[in-house]
Write a structure and sequence with these properties.
By secondary structure, the chain is an alpha/beta fold. Helix content is 40%, strand content 17%. Helix 7 packs parallel to helix 9. The longest helix has 19 residues. The protein binds UDP-4-deoxy-4-formamido-beta-L-arabinopyranose.
Amino acid sequence: MKVLVTGGLGFIGSHTVVELCNEGFEVVIIDNLSNSSKEVLTRLKKIVDRDILFENIDLKEKDKVVDFFNRHKDIKGVIHFAASKAVGESVQKPLLYYENNLTTLIYILQEFSKKEKAAFIFSSSCTVYGQVDMLPITENVPLKPAESPYANTKQIGEEIIRDLCKVQENLKAISLRYFNPIGAHESSTIGELPIGMPQNLVPFITQTAIGLREQLLVFGDNYPTRDGTCIRDYIHVVDLAKAHLVALKRVLEDTQESNYEIFNLGTGTGRTVLEVISSFEKVSGKKLNYKITDRRTGDVTVTYADIEHANYVLGWKAEKSLDDAMRSAWKWEQKITSNKL
Ligand code: WQD
């Protein structure tokens, strides 16, 4: 069965491609290489030991999207990852984010939803919740205003899909709200490839440990948490990738409760920044050079997912531990830095 993965050369997309191939799906990747590299395709083929179709298409070019679906009439499912994802950058360049993340979604839905049966999985984010006041976060809490244009594109993206599902019964969709994806594939062949200075905690930790950065700055230790640092729900990217497979099958097999569903993807357990550092030090055997500094603007104190809905309805549960994720992230960092790929 043929499945389109947009953004399939990115961090979460590439790990999902592996899971899809392992399950026997025929995968076509669309990626414009804006935040990824063609090299990832070669590595993916190495992991799954078979060919993967790839098209370098910018999904903002509508005629190319139309042409793509005309040429691939046998596509049964779409997993839509392709998007810009830097929260800080989105504040500086809102139009870029609205254009990149929303026009592409609209064009794909316009074409794909013409099919008699269309199975669609949307890459959403826990940022849609905004500043929450109840923990753990359940899928049915009313969404607060988005804290950034990035988060807003995910809120609006979900609304677009919901509205379309109301009038098109042929379209079956699931939005997956990710918490904090970390880690890398156990082969250390694919992983996160931040361009420039990493914005996220884990790549910053591994880059500091390997000597690419001098020191990790821990943003604030005076939060009302067990050790004063912020709490997040860190989830191994391979667990996350597997959830996409489960979601896609649910949609393809028509076992949904309604034709548009939403699931949180997290572990359900919150970890502080210092706990993440300590896990890294344990699995790597290295002492990390870090220092506490001021709070980062925009950080919420605590977020973690309520995972009951994903566990019982989707039938998926994260299996890997924080230590597993940190070990794989460290192995990956060592491999990319020493250019052994
Ligand atoms: C984690 C914690 C920082 C860097 C991310 C994405 C967001 C969304 C969810 C996709 C925080 C602290 C970080 C550093 C630090 N994903 N930190 N020093 O902010 O939870 O959000 O995941 O939609 O888009 O950005 O993740 O990794 O930036 O931060 O102390 O150098 O680590 O303050 O407490 P965040 P993060």
